[in-house]
Design goal:
54% helix; mainly alpha
Length: 157
C-alpha cells in the first residue's frame, strides 16, 4: 500500500486513522503489519501508539494546525481600531502625511507615526484586507461630464 501524506487530510480523517491504528494495536497486530495495512509511515504509527499509551483515547485526537486567529499580529486590537477610525474619518494630509489618498504606503507611514512600528506594505495590505478596505479604481469617465459642453469646447479649440 502506498504511503499517504497526513498533512493533506482533515483533522477528522486523521483522527479516524489514528483510532484504527490503536484498535489494530489492541488486537495484537504487530507495528510493521499496521504500517502495511494503514498506509501510514512507521513513525506516525509509533507516535499514535505512544500517545494512546500515555493518555488514552483523548490523547490521539489531533490538535488544530497552524496559528490561531489573531496570533502573531503586531498591532493590538485597540491600535487596529484607532487606525481604522483615522482612515475612515480623515484624509492623509489631515494626519500630516505626504499623500492625497490612503494607500498601503500611507497607512504604513501612519502606523509608524502613531505607534513607532515599521510594517511592510504587504503586512499593511493584509491588515487593510482584514478590515474590509479594498483598492478602488477610478472611473475613466466623470459622472458630471456634459458631453455637449465638451464637444463645443473641442470644436472651438
Amino acid at each position: 500500500m502506498e504511503k499517504e501524506d497526513a498533512r493533506y487530510q482533515t483533522l477528522a480523517q486523521l483522527h479516524e486513522r489514528r483510532k484504527h491504528v490503536v484498535r489494530m494495536h489492541l488486537k495484537g497486530i504487530k507495528i510493521m503489519r499496521i504500517v502495511a495495512m494503514s498506509g501510514l509511515c512507521y513513525q506516525a504509527v509509533r507516535d499514535t501508539i505512544g500517545l494512546f499509551k500515555e493518555g488514552g483515547w483523548p490523547a490521539i485526537r489531533p490538535a488544530a494546525r497552524g496559528r490561531g486567529s489573531g496570533e502573531g499580529r503586531l498591532l493590538s486590537a485597540e491600535q487596529e481600531r484607532l487606525i481604522q477610525r483615522a482612515i475612515i474619518d480623515k484624509r492623509p494630509e489631515q494626519m500630516r502625511l505626504d499623500f492625497y489618498l490612503w494607500s498601503r504606503s500611507a497607512v504604513a507611514q501612519l502606523i509608524a507615526q502613531e505607534f513607532g512600528l515599521e510594517l511592510s506594505e504587504r503586512t499593511v495590505g493584509k491588515y487593510l484586507k482584514r478590515w474590509g478596505f479594498t483598492p478602488q479604481k477610478p472611473f475613466k469617465k466623470a459622472y458630471e461630464q456634459w458631453p455637449d459642453a465638451v464637444q463645443a469646447w473641442l470644436d472651438e479649440h
